[in-house]
Amino acid sequence: MPRGRNGRALAKRTGTGLRALMASDADLEEALHTCINGLLASQPPSLAALSAAADRLLGEVIEPLKESAEELQPSDHHCPN
Fold this sequence. Notes:
mainly alpha
């Protein structure tokens, strides 16, 4: 869990860019193009596989991080100034 107010604020915003990407067909298509022609050219994913990976990342990593940041109160974690 990130420490301090800045860390909690960051954790609460984590995933906003990925959610925006997933909500836009044009942006998702551009991300797929980038993967197919660059990052993952040797093993290009399908659009369904890319979407599934994003959904899994949101569900297994980002949402739990966000939830724990929202539950953690400033007094629950002491950081030196």
